[in-house]
Amino acid sequence: MSEEDEETMDDEAALNQVIQVEFEARTPEGGDFDGIKQLLQQLFLKAHVNVSSLAEIILQQSHIGSVIKQSEVPEEEEMEDDDEDVVFGVTTTINITEKKDMSCIKQIITFLMDKCQRFGTNETVKIFENLLSRDKDCANNVGFILSERFVNIPVQISAPLYENLCTEMRAANEKQQKFLFDHYIIICKTYKAECKRGKKTTTTDVYSNPEEDLFDQEALASFEYSVAGEADSGLDGNWDSEEEGMKPFRRVLIIPEIGRASCRERV
Question: How far apart are CA 59 and CA 27, in angstroms?
């Protein structure tokens, strides 16, 4: 075998090598700001929401929620590319009732109500107005769930993340912090996959975070809107939405209190 053939085989072996990477949840820290901001931008895309301010809120309440990072690698196994400080995901909850007067929260509420009025049913609009109204004191505390991660992160990580989130919220509530919620709002990244069989075309909803399909099944109200003109980047997948028949959407859910609802237990 020639030296050139050996080099070719080595290159092919390197390409086919499966790299095992482990991830873990950590407390958000100041150095995570850019990574969290990037993940939030993937959710809101071109929406008029100050994701920098939203990232700052997440860091200010660092005792609530987690970021996903690569597990520490022994020195002898370290690769040239160091991903230890990359934020691969974030899961947290923000009390948008208590923080409704903050600028970025106002922007989120305005954005959600605008989309709801355009794409939701009359009944759905009434439900969202009741929860998000800023004209009167609302008896309900509403939590805004943020759960963003790279598309290649295993879905199995979601269960311990939500368990940990619920534990942290209970502990914070025992300290008289307002993290006991009656309802939650979550924006899910979804895609409509079109499949043509003969003259029939069927559409299937695909969730970027598969566990959110379970939340949808428990939703008290929901609406969706297209983001086809605001293409997602590689954080959320590298497919061409038109070529693969995958049309990007956002689906907004109101779900029950996850500490007592079956949706958390089914994640």
Answer: 9
Place of tokens 């008290």: 220
Q: What's the start-to-end Cα distance of the chain, in Å?
A: 53
Maximum distance among all Cα pairs of the chain, rounded to whole angstroms: 80
Look up the pTM and report it: 0.83
DSSP character for 39?
H
Contact (Cβ atoms closer than 8 angstroms) between residue 65 and residue 27 = no
- 68 beta partners: 25, 89
Q: Where are the beta strands (DSSP E) in 125-182?
A: 142-149
Judged on CB neighbours under 10 Å (0-12, 13-18, 19+), 150 is middle
The per-residue DSSP string of 99-125 comes to TTTSHHHHHHHHHHHHHHHHHS-HHHH
Residue showing tokens 């990580």 = 157
For the stretch 85-135, pLDDT in tens is 899 999 999 999 999 999 999 999 999 999 999 999 999 999 999 999 766
